What we know:
By secondary structure, this protein is of the alpha/beta class. The chain has helices at 14-27, 47-60, 97-108, 131-144, 201-217, 263-280, 286-298, 312-325; strands at 3-6, 31-34, 63-65, 73-77, 85-90, 115-121, 148-157, 164-171, 180-181, 189-197, 222-228, 233-234, 237-246, 249-256, 300-307, 328-333, 340-347.
Amino acid sequence: MVVEIDGSMGEGGGQLLRYSAAISAITGVPVRIYNIRAKRANPGLRPQHYAALSFLARLVDAETRGLRVGSTEVYFRPRRRPQSGVFTVDIGTAGSVTLFLQAVTPVLLAASGPVTLRVSGGTSVKWSPPFPYFEEVLVPLFRLWGARVKARLVRRGFYPVGGGLVEVSAEPSFPLSPFRLETRVVYQAVGGVSYVGNLPCSIAERQKRAAEGFLREKGLRNIDIRVDCRTPARGRGTGIVLWARKGEAVIGGDSLGERGKPAEKVGGEAAVKLYGPLRRGVPVDPHASDNLVIYMALAGGVSRILTSELTSHAETALRLCSMIAGAKYRVDRSEKGDAVLIEVEGAGLRPR
């Protein structure tokens, strides 16, 4: 039975395409995705989507049709369990490394043995999380569901050059376990990294000071933001990623520099993004929630996360995981409207 997926469903972006192929690769259920990215100005597969689906097809020896840049319809039928090994992928130009990893990481965990993956592309790219957010916020959250994964940055890559490099290692982790992050917390400490590539270190220092200033005005005192001007980089750019941890809870906020954008604004934006979920005391920030849905859906039993809002990406991911993985879900908003509880009853799926 082939699951038919309308690529214009919900927010209709690349996440739907990536998650569809990832769940198919794990479960062995063939999918046909049509109207791919129909709501975008440039619909169809872009190079970064092609790179992700091509790699997944390679892992599971998938039969594919329509797998080419520009295609608005793709058929994907896995023919084996994801394979172990050492792999190298070049997304090309500044295609987002983190969006690529969003798709492939769950599949790496379903492999028959250890996997080592080296991916080159953009590590700080607009409209996608910078790599430090993936490393410091998402990976620790994935591990709560039983994911045995590590990630490290080798070289930064900025738009439009790309050329960044990251290494990911994963070990078989299925069956995933359900987990609940539903209790509000009081964050007392903030960490972070303010970085530049091939630009003066003073820019990173200014970003750091702006973020610290905003957070101190809000009453936070335990702030530790390091400045990184030494990591090798391709292209020129800046960015800052902040995070707050309390027990198993971890939330993040980030911002990227761009031409004509003062360093103070970059640092301030990241602090504002972090402060939203921080002042509400939620254990998961909104962006992380849409990344966790697939793990919640694949795990056996009931998982719950509390976040500050339900994003369109999370809503689409919930619908998609219900269609392909058979997960059941519900969403409850708090009486004050300042938090959202996402509950997913996963199917406890195992790789096929």
